[in-house]
C-alpha cells in the first residue's frame, strides 16, 4: 500500500467519521439490548460462523454487529450471573475517546489532563471513604492489582529491607471467603502461600472475628512476627461484609496492617441504606475498590487507597531516567506508584459519571440492586422448590433446591445441570458456586435495570428447570 492509499483507506477523515457513526450506533445497540435472549441459545454456531467470515474494512461494522449478537448481554435485565456490571451508557461511550487519545498515565507529560483527572478522582474517593488528607491512591486495572499493590505497600512498611534482599517474613491472616488474589499475591511476592492463615467463617459467611486471636496465635507459633489482616466487604461467593470495627481493633492491638478488600462492597459508601456495612473502613491501612463492579463501570476501573500516602510511595523503588521527572511538578508521574508502566486512562469514565450525575446516582443504583437481591431471597423463602442459603447483605444471593438428592455428588451435579439448562435457554442467566462443600445456585444483581418482576422471572426459570429435572426430562 502506498502512503496515499493508506491515507485514503485508514485516516481519511470522512471515513473515520462514518466508522464512528456506525460503531457508535452499534455501541448504543449493545447498551440498550434489553429484549431477546440474554445469550442466544445458538451462540456457539454463530461464533463458529463469525470465525470463518471474511473481514474487510467495508464489512467491519457488520462483523461487529455479529460479535454483539453472539455475546452475553449484560444490559439484559435477566442477566444476574457474575460481578461484572451492565455498564452505565455514558461511561461505556467515553471509552472510545480514551482509546483514541491513548494518553498513558505513566508520566504527567504524556497525560496532562488524564493525570489531573486521575488525581481528582482519587481525592474524591479518599473523602468518600473517610480518609485523611495525607491519604493517597492509584487507579489500577482491577481488584487483583489493587490487592497485590496493597500487600506490596504493607511489606514495604513491615519489612522494608525485603525490596532489596527479597523475602520478608509476613503472615497474612484472611477469612475463608477472601478472594483468591490475596493468596496468589502472597505466592507472587515470595511470601509463600503457606504464609496465609485462614480464619473460619461465622453463620453469615463473614470472617469470624472470634477466631482471629487463634489465627494470630497460629501465625506466631509458625514463627511470624509481622502481620497483615485482610477483611472483606462484599465477599465473592455471598457478598458478606466483615465486621470492620472489630477487625480494625484486633489489627491495632497486634500492630498488624489492615487491608480491606472492598472490591465489591465499596460502592455501598454511596448508599444511604447500606453504608453502615462499611462502618470504620477509614481505619484500614489500605482499601481495594472496583468501580467496575458496584458503580457499573465497564471493565476496567479499580482503585487502591492508602490511609498514609507515604506507604503507597514506598511500595515501589524504581528509577527510569527516560520517563520520570527529575524535579517535582504539580502532578506526579503516576508510573512510579504502580505495577504497570503504560497505563490506560481508566479514571475518565468514573470521574465523568460522578460529575455528570452526582453521588445521588450511585446512592440510587447501589441501593436498588441490593433491594432486588432481597426480593430474590423472599421469593426463595416462599418457593416450594428453592430455599435461600443465606440472607443477602448486598446484591448476591446463594440458594439451592429444597429437596436435593441425598448424595452430595448427585446434588452437586443436579445443581450444575439446572444452572446450565437455565443459561442455555436464554431467558435468564445465573451462576453457581460451592458453599459449605455443596454446589448451590448464585445470583449477583449487577444491572440496575433488573426489576422485581425480572427477578421473579429468573427464579421461575430455575423452578421450571428444577421441575423438569425432577420428572427426569
Ligand atoms: C472481593 C474481591 N476481591 C478482588 C477481586 C478481583 O477483582 P478483579 O476481578 O477486578 O481483578 C474480586 C473479583 O471478583 C472480588 O470479588
What key phrases describe this protein's structure?
11 strands; Aspartate Aminotransferase, domain 2; 17 helices; alpha/beta
Which outline best applies? globular
N-to-C order of helices and strands: HHHHHHHEHHEHEHEHEEHEHHEEHEEH
The average pLDDT score comes to: 96
Radius of gyration: 24 Å
Counted by DSSP, the helix tally is 17
**CATH class descriptor of the domain at 102-354:** Alpha Beta
Helix content: 40-55%
CATH architecture identity of the domain at 102-354:
3-Layer(aba) Sandwich
Largest sheet: 7 strands, mixed
Strands, count: 11
CATH level-four homologous superfamily name of the domain at 102-354 = Type I PLP-dependent aspartate aminotransferase-like (Major domain)
Order of strands, widest sheet: 1-7-6-5-4-2-3
Write a structural description:
- This protein has helices spanning 3-11, 13-31, 43-52, 60-69, 89-93, 95-101, 112-128, 143-158, 162-165, 180-188, 212-221, 244-253, 291-294, 309-314, 347-382, 408-425, 452-470; strands at residues 136-140, 170-175, 196-199, 226-232, 257-261, 286-289, 302-306, 386-388, 396-401, 431-435, 438-444.
- The protein has 473 residues and is α/β, with parallel strands linked by helices.
- It has a domain at 102-354: 3-Layer(aba) Sandwich (Aspartate Aminotransferase, domain 2).
- Helix 2 (13-31) packs parallel to helix 4 and helix 16 (408-425) crosses helix 17 (452-470).
- The model has no long low-confidence stretch (mean pLDDT 96).
- The chain binds pyridoxal-5'-phosphate.
- Pyridoxal-5'-phosphate binds next to helix 8.
Amino acid at each position: 500500500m502506498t502512503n496515499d492509499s493508506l491515507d485514503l483507506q485508514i485516516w481519511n477523515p470522512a471515513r473515520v467519521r462514518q466508522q464512528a457513526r456506525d460503531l457508535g450506533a452499534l455501541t448504543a445497540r449493545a447498551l440498550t439490548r434489553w429484549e431477546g435472549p440474554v445469550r442466544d441459545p445458538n451462540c456457539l454456531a454463530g461464533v463458529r460462523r463469525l470465525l470463518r467470515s471474511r473481514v474487510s474494512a467495508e464489512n467491519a461494522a457488520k462483523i461487529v454487529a455479529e460479535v454483539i449478537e453472539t455475546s452475553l448481554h449484560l444490559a439484559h435485565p435477566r442477566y444476574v450471573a457474575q460481578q461484572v456490571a451492565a455498564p452505565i451508557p455514558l461511561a461505556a461511550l467515553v471509552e472510545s475517546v480514551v482509546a483514541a487519545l491513548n494518553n498513558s498515565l505513566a508520566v504527567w507529560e504524556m497525560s496532562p489532563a488524564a493525570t489531573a483527572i486521575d488525581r481528582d478522582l482519587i481525592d474524591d474517593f479518599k473523602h468518600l471513604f473517610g480518609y485523611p488528607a495525607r491519604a493517597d491512591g492509584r487507579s489500577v486495572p482491577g481488584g487483583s492489582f489493587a490487592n497485590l499493590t496493597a500487600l506490596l505497600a504493607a511489606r514495604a512498611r513491615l519489612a522494608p529491607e525485603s525490596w532489596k534482599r527479597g523475602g520478608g517474613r509476613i503472615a497474612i491472616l484472611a477469612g475463608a471467603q477472601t478472594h483468591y488474589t490475596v493468596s496468589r499475591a502472597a505466592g507472587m511476592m515470595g511470601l509463600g502461600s503457606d504464609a496465609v492463615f485462614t480464619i473460619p467463617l461465622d453463620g453469615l459467611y463473614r470472617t469470624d472475628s472470634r477466631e482471629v486471636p487463634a489465627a494470630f496465635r497460629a501465625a506466631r507459633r509458625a514463627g511470624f512476627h509481622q502481620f497483615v489482616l485482610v477483611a472483606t466487604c462484599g465477599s465473592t461467593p455471598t457478598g458478606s461484609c466483615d465486621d470492620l470495627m472489630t477487625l480494625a481493633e484486633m489489627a491495632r492491638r497486634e500492630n498488624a496492617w489492615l487491608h480491606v478488600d472492598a472490591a465489591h462492597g465499596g460502592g455501598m459508601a454511596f448508599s444511604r441504606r447500606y453504608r453502615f456495612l462499611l462502618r470504620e473502613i477509614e481505619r484500614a491501612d489500605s482499601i481495594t475498590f472496583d468501580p467496575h463492579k458496584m458503580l457499573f463501570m465497564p471493565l476496567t476501573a479499580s482503585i487502591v487507597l492508602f490511609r498514609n500516602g507515604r506507604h503507597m510511595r514506598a511500595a515501589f523503588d524504581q528509577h527510569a531516567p527516560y520517563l520520570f521527572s527529575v524535579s517535582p511538578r504539580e502532578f506526579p508521574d503516576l508510573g512510579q506508584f504502580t505495577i504497570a508502566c503504560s497505563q490506560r486512562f481508566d479514571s475518565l469514565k468514573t470521574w465523568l459519571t460522578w460529575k455528570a450525575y452526582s453521588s445521588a446516582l450511585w446512592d440510587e443504583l447501589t441501593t436498588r440492586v441490593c433491594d432486588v437481591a432481597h426480593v430474590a431471597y423472599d421469593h426463595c423463602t416462599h418457593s416450594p422448590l428453592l430455599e435461600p442459603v443465606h440472607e443477602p447483605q448486598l446484591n448476591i444471593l446463594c440458594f439451592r433446591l429444597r429437596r436435593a438428592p441425598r448424595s452430595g455428588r448427585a446434588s452437586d451435579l443436579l445443581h450444575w445441570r439446572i444452572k446450565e439448562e437455565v443459561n442455555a435457554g436464554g431467558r435468564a442467566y445465573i451462576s453457581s458456586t460451592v458453599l459449605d462443600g455443596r454446589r448451590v445456585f448464585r445470583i449477583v444483581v449487577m444491572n440496575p435495570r433488573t426489576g422485581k418482576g425480572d427477578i421473579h422471572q429468573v427464579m421461575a426459570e430455575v423452578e421450571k428447570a428444577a421441575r423438569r429435572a425432577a420428572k427426569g426430562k
